[in-house]
Amino acid sequence: MKIKTKRAVAKRFKLSKTGKVIARTANQDHFNSTDTGAQTRAKRSDKQITSGIKKAIKRQLGKQ
Q1: What is the pLDDT of residues 8-22, one digit of tens each?
Q2: Could you give the C-alpha distances from 4 to 1, 8, 15, 40, 57, in angstroms and in order?
Q3: Domain limits at 24?
């Protein structure tokens, strides 16, 4: 039986072609005027998830 995709997870993470889990950088919605230029530039790029939740995220996305 196919596993249903968790929609909340699908909105927050995506899988690359090689199987890496990619997430948007946190803390970039508002209150950014006090950040340094380096912090602002660092927030522009997406981050790769490397922790132990990677396996759970893949399962919830319907990938095994």
Answers
A1: 999 999 999 999 999
A2: 9, 12, 16, 36, 13
A3: 7-60
C-alpha torsion sign, points 16, 52, 23, 58: positive
* Domain assignment present for 1: no
51 lies in some domain: yes
pTM for the whole structure: 0.79
CATH of the domain at 27: 4.10.410.60
Burial class of residue 36, CB neighbours in 10 A (0-12, 13-18, 19+): exposed
Whether 41 is in a domain gets the answer yes
**Under a CB-based contact definition with an 8 Å cutoff, are residues 46 and 23 in contact?**
yes
